[in-house]
Amino acid sequence: MTAAFYLLLAIGLLGAFDVLYFHTWRGRLQERAECQREVLWHTVRHVIYGLQFLWVPHLRFQGAALGLLAVLYAADVFVAWADVWEERDSRAPQGGLPRGEYFMHVVLSVLVGLYLMSIFHAVWPDRLLPTGLRVDPPAVPVALRTLMTVMGVVALASFARDLVRWFAFRRAPAVPKQPPPRRIVVEALIPAPVETVWERTQEPELHTQWDVRFTSIRYLPECDARGFHLMDYRTHLGFGLEVKGWGRYLANTPLVRSTFEFGSDDFRSLILKGRGLWLYERRAEGTFFKTVFDYQTRHGVVGELLDAVLFRPVMRLGTEWGFETLRQWCAGDEGAPARGRSRWRFALFVLARVLGRAPAPGAARSWLGSGNENREAAPSCGELVEVSP
Questions:
Q1: Cβ proximity of 244 and 234 under 8 Å
Q2: Contact 126, 62 (CB under 8 A)
Q3: Domain interval for residue 228
Q4: Would 301 disulfide with which of 70, 100, 177, 227, CB 3.0-4.6 Å?
């Protein structure tokens, strides 16, 4: 039973990732009317695997009691078949299964086949024993047995929760929700004229003095069809590593707005291609400066996961850190650029934000959203243009 235990543990952990990432976070199946039959099969699967997570690390079935296992595994096979049958119609409006999820299902199918073979090999001799159940844990660490037990309890609780949600959805179908916008939005009220802010954000040599995200920015000789120079962006990561990127303007209205496109052909860069804008608004207190940008990632599912968990939050805070450095610099603090370029100071800033420290009053602020949220008391810069790539 030891081999079956480890196979089931791997299936449970990979299945949890499949549910949390592909079903809940990316596909948002529970919010889509066309996916409700698939969601029901997933809900039933929770109870089937919950029971397996509870019996495999603790119990041994004997004699006629093995019929209960036969029913349980037959139900598992039937639900898996019904789920595959339903997915074709359920996922059609989304363009079918993502490649990453399809690959995950292939891996899980192989593991499930090995698991069923292992279970059959382990319990077949017990058919000749007297009917009953006995406590006979497999030879695995107690910590892993405890982990699988917890997984079983969580699976059964998820079954109860999802079943209630499914019935609620069926009684009052909701309008399908779109995934929440995840554009990076940063704004700051800078106590300086628009002309000063424009110069220090548009001139590459001045830009790199306050923006910790880039080591160097320079215009390339060639221009695009609109007459804008292409730009070369570089960031030194340390240990001799450097990530290269490119950028270009899409439109430029001096002292008002800049829209731009950016990306990288460097495989070490998580950013494949993106778009964004800078907004400048003259105020009595100085200049209201705001950026909104978004990008596509490379490296498939791994890239999306790294972006959601780590890269995008750090990119957001890096932009906020730069805006605050610019605000202090334009306010007359000549030491702000040197402090802003310190990666140690930036790391402490990120740690403080992760621990829940809010921006100081009057400081730059950032969030993930659509870019049209009004996060300040003063009038906003108006509706933003579409910036998604």
A1: yes
A2: yes
A3: 183-369
A4: 100
Alpha carbon distances (Å) from 353 to 316, 337, 356? 11, 21, 5
Integer Cα distance of 197 and 205 in angstroms: 14
Tokens of residue 115, six digits? 């698991």
Kindly give, in sequence order, each residue whose CB lies less than 8 Å from that of residue 225, ignoring residues fewer than 6 positions away. Answer: none
Q: How far is residue 367 from each of residues 156, 273, 342, measured CA to CA in Å?
A: 36, 20, 23
Tens of pLDDT, residues 111-164: 988 998 998 888 888 888 888 888 888 888 899 989 989 998 988 998 888 888
**Length of the chain, please?**
389
* 252 in a structural domain: yes
Is 160 domain-assigned? yes
Report the domain count for the chain. Answer: 2
Judge contact between 310 and 302, C-beta under 8 A. Answer: no
Residue 38 lies in a domain: yes
Per-residue buried b or exposed e for 221-257, using 16+ beta carbons within 10 Å of the residue's own CB = eeeeeeebeebebebeeeeeeebebbbbbbeeeeeeb
